[in-house]
Amino acid sequence: MKEIYTVIITETTDKKMPYLVYVPDFDVVTEGKDLNDALYMAEDIISLCGVDYEDDGKFIPTPTAIDSIDMSVSHWADVCEPSEIITEFKTLVPVDFDLYRKKLQNTAVRRNVSLPAWLDAEASKAGINVSAVLQNALKAELHTV
Protein backbone atom coordinates (compact mmCIF):
# COMPACT_ATOMS: atom_id res chain seq x y z
CA MET A 1 0.00 0.00 0.00
CA LYS A 2 1.43 3.36 -1.04
CA GLU A 3 0.72 6.53 0.91
CA ILE A 4 2.12 10.05 1.27
CA TYR A 5 2.58 11.42 4.79
CA THR A 6 3.31 14.94 5.96
CA VAL A 7 6.37 15.49 8.16
CA ILE A 8 7.77 18.55 9.89
CA ILE A 9 11.48 19.04 9.40
CA THR A 10 13.37 21.31 11.75
CA GLU A 11 16.89 22.45 10.94
CA THR A 12 18.94 23.21 14.05
CA THR A 13 22.40 24.46 14.89
CA ASP A 14 23.45 20.97 16.06
CA LYS A 15 26.54 19.94 14.08
CA LYS A 16 26.14 16.14 14.35
CA MET A 17 22.41 15.77 13.60
CA PRO A 18 21.10 19.15 12.50
CA TYR A 19 17.80 17.90 11.07
CA LEU A 20 14.95 16.79 13.33
CA VAL A 21 11.88 15.12 11.83
CA TYR A 22 8.45 14.87 13.42
CA VAL A 23 5.77 12.59 11.91
CA PRO A 24 2.40 13.80 13.28
CA ASP A 25 0.30 10.88 12.04
CA PHE A 26 2.42 8.40 14.01
CA ASP A 27 3.61 10.84 16.71
CA VAL A 28 7.22 9.74 16.24
CA VAL A 29 10.50 11.57 15.72
CA THR A 30 13.77 10.83 14.00
CA GLU A 31 16.76 12.85 12.84
CA GLY A 32 19.24 13.17 10.01
CA LYS A 33 22.77 14.37 9.38
CA ASP A 34 21.61 16.27 6.28
CA LEU A 35 18.30 16.90 4.54
CA ASN A 36 18.58 13.83 2.33
CA ASP A 37 19.29 11.64 5.36
CA ALA A 38 16.40 13.22 7.28
CA LEU A 39 13.97 12.42 4.44
CA TYR A 40 15.32 8.86 4.22
CA MET A 41 14.92 8.44 7.98
CA ALA A 42 11.37 9.85 7.78
CA GLU A 43 10.43 7.30 5.13
CA ASP A 44 12.05 4.54 7.17
CA ILE A 45 10.31 5.36 10.45
CA ILE A 46 6.91 5.81 8.79
CA SER A 47 7.31 2.49 6.98
CA LEU A 48 8.44 0.71 10.13
CA CYS A 49 5.53 2.13 12.14
CA GLY A 50 3.06 1.10 9.45
CA VAL A 51 4.37 -2.47 9.33
CA ASP A 52 4.34 -2.63 13.14
CA TYR A 53 0.75 -1.35 13.21
CA GLU A 54 -0.30 -4.03 10.71
CA ASP A 55 1.50 -6.74 12.69
CA ASP A 56 -0.25 -5.59 15.88
CA GLY A 57 -3.66 -5.62 14.16
CA LYS A 58 -3.99 -1.83 14.28
CA PHE A 59 -5.16 0.38 11.44
CA ILE A 60 -2.47 2.46 9.77
CA PRO A 61 -3.37 6.15 10.17
CA THR A 62 -4.77 7.89 7.14
CA PRO A 63 -2.32 10.61 6.08
CA THR A 64 -3.24 14.07 7.30
CA ALA A 65 -3.34 16.72 4.59
CA ILE A 66 -0.30 18.99 4.60
CA ASP A 67 -2.51 22.07 5.11
CA SER A 68 -4.03 20.56 8.26
CA ILE A 69 -0.72 20.17 10.13
CA ASP A 70 -0.29 22.76 12.91
CA MET A 71 3.20 24.28 12.89
CA SER A 72 2.61 26.48 15.95
CA VAL A 73 3.17 23.63 18.43
CA SER A 74 6.82 22.94 19.19
CA HIS A 75 7.77 19.28 19.22
CA TRP A 76 11.32 19.92 20.36
CA ALA A 77 11.02 21.51 23.82
CA ASP A 78 12.87 18.58 25.39
CA VAL A 79 15.45 18.42 22.63
CA CYS A 80 16.60 21.94 21.84
CA GLU A 81 16.13 25.57 22.71
CA PRO A 82 14.14 27.83 20.36
CA SER A 83 17.34 29.77 19.68
CA GLU A 84 18.87 26.59 18.19
CA ILE A 85 16.17 26.30 15.53
CA ILE A 86 17.20 27.70 12.15
CA THR A 87 14.08 26.87 10.16
CA GLU A 88 11.05 24.58 10.12
CA PHE A 89 8.98 23.42 7.20
CA LYS A 90 6.43 20.79 6.20
CA THR A 91 7.02 18.35 3.39
CA LEU A 92 5.55 15.17 2.01
CA VAL A 93 7.16 11.75 2.24
CA PRO A 94 5.95 8.87 0.04
CA VAL A 95 6.04 5.39 1.56
CA ASP A 96 5.30 1.91 0.25
CA PHE A 97 4.42 -0.36 3.17
CA ASP A 98 4.35 -3.49 1.01
CA LEU A 99 7.81 -2.85 -0.43
CA TYR A 100 9.19 -2.10 3.05
CA ARG A 101 7.75 -5.36 4.37
CA LYS A 102 9.42 -7.27 1.52
CA LYS A 103 12.77 -5.68 2.40
CA LEU A 104 12.32 -6.83 6.00
CA GLN A 105 11.78 -10.40 4.85
CA ASN A 106 15.35 -11.45 4.37
CA THR A 107 14.53 -15.00 3.30
CA ALA A 108 17.09 -16.46 0.93
CA VAL A 109 15.83 -17.50 -2.49
CA ARG A 110 17.68 -20.11 -4.50
CA ARG A 111 18.75 -19.05 -8.01
CA ASN A 112 20.62 -21.11 -10.56
CA VAL A 113 23.57 -19.09 -11.88
CA SER A 114 25.95 -20.20 -14.62
CA LEU A 115 29.66 -19.39 -14.33
CA PRO A 116 32.61 -20.46 -16.41
CA ALA A 117 34.28 -23.44 -14.70
CA TRP A 118 37.61 -21.62 -14.39
CA LEU A 119 35.95 -18.67 -12.65
CA ASP A 120 34.14 -20.93 -10.20
CA ALA A 121 37.43 -22.76 -9.46
CA GLU A 122 39.30 -19.48 -8.87
CA ALA A 123 36.55 -18.18 -6.58
CA SER A 124 36.60 -21.42 -4.58
CA LYS A 125 40.40 -21.36 -4.32
CA ALA A 126 40.27 -17.75 -3.07
CA GLY A 127 37.54 -18.59 -0.56
CA ILE A 128 35.11 -16.16 -2.16
CA ASN A 129 31.42 -16.54 -1.33
CA VAL A 130 29.89 -16.28 -4.81
CA SER A 131 26.38 -15.72 -3.41
CA ALA A 132 27.59 -12.76 -1.32
CA VAL A 133 29.43 -11.24 -4.29
CA LEU A 134 26.33 -11.62 -6.45
CA GLN A 135 24.13 -10.04 -3.77
CA ASN A 136 26.51 -7.08 -3.37
CA ALA A 137 26.72 -6.61 -7.14
CA LEU A 138 22.93 -6.67 -7.50
CA LYS A 139 22.50 -4.17 -4.65
CA ALA A 140 25.05 -1.84 -6.28
CA GLU A 141 23.39 -2.22 -9.68
CA LEU A 142 19.95 -1.53 -8.20
CA HIS A 143 21.25 1.33 -6.03
CA THR A 144 19.91 -0.21 -2.83
CA VAL A 145 21.43 -0.41 0.62
Which descriptors apply to this entry?
4 strands; 145 residues; elongated; Double Stranded RNA Binding Domain; alpha+beta
Polypeptide structure, described:
The chain folds into two domains: 2-104, Double Stranded RNA Binding Domain (2-Layer Sandwich), CATH 3.30.160; 108-145, no CATH class. α1 (35-55) packs across α2 (97-104). The relative contact order is 0.18. The mean pLDDT is 91. The protein has 145 residues and is an alpha+beta fold. The radius of gyration is 21 Å and the shape is elongated. The chain has four helices and four strands, in the order βββαβααα.
Summarize the structure.
The chain is an alpha+beta fold. Helix content is 35%, strand content 23%.
Secondary structure elements and pairings:
Layout: E1 2-12, E2 19-23, E3 28-32, H1 35-55, E4 85-96, H2 97-104, H3 117-125, H4 130-142
Antiparallel strand pairs: 1-2, 1-4, 2-3
As laid out across the biggest beta sheet, the strand order is 3-2-1-4
Q: Which radius of gyration do the C-alpha atoms yield?
A: 21 Å
CATH topology of the largest domain, by name, is: Double Stranded RNA Binding Domain
Q: How many helices?
A: 4
Number of domains: 2
Termini separation (Å)?
Answer: 21 Å
Task: Indicate the mean pLDDT.
Answer: 91
Sketch the topology as an H/E string, one letter per element: EEEHEHHH
pLDDT below 50 for ≥5 consecutive residues: which ranges? none
SSE class: alpha+beta
General shape = elongated
CATH class of the largest domain: Alpha Beta
State the share of residues found in helices, binned by percent: 25-40%
Number of strands: 4
Strand proportion: 15-25%
Question: Quick one: biggest sheet?
Answer: 4 strands, antiparallel
